[in-house]
Amino acid sequence: MTKKYQAKVSYIMLVVIFLLFFIPLIFGAINNGIHKEFYVLIAILVPSYLFILNIFLGTEYWIDNDVLKIKCGFLYTKSISIHEIKTISKTNSLISSPAPSLDRIEITYAKFDDIIISPKDKVTLAKDLTLINPNIKNHITEN
């Protein structure tokens, strides 16, 4: 059985990042004109922003048999045995994680490990995980 869960994406965060990247560039071009340094900055900023965009839009989660798989862009993948998961709870943590939104959940697993993700449908993911491992303390659906 394989079930896929889309990540919740904060488009406001993407817009803010875009503005942080390109507004100084635009003001620099308006005030100083377009010089060769402008093209160098474009050559650096556009691929950097496209990389960030790939991370945001390429994040997904899925359950494959008894494994929770996490993909974040084309660089990061992680597999977690669902039988090692201990708790699922809401979090407001800003720690860097495969969660392209600030509406996040934290999954603790193994001995001292945790990961923060942001699925669109947190309740369904939490329920599906607890169906496979009933020992998970599910603080998402218990509230």
Strand order in space, largest sheet: 1-2-3-4
The fold-level CATH name is PH-domain like
- List how many beta strands DSSP finds: 8
Mean pLDDT: 91
Separation of the first and last Cα atoms? 28 Å
Structure report:
This protein is an alpha+beta fold and 143 residues long. It has one domain (1-143): PH-domain like (Roll). Helices cover 38% and strands 30% of the residues. The protein is built from three helices and eight strands. The chain has helices at residues 11-32, 36-57, 122-132; strands at 2-6, 59-64, 67-72, 76-81, 85-91, 104-109, 113-117, 137-138. The protein has a four-stranded antiparallel beta sheet with strand order 1-2-3-4. The protein has a four-stranded mixed beta sheet with strand order 7-6-5-8, with helices on one face. Helix 1 (11-32) runs antiparallel to helix 2 (36-57). The model has no long low-confidence stretch (mean pLDDT 91).
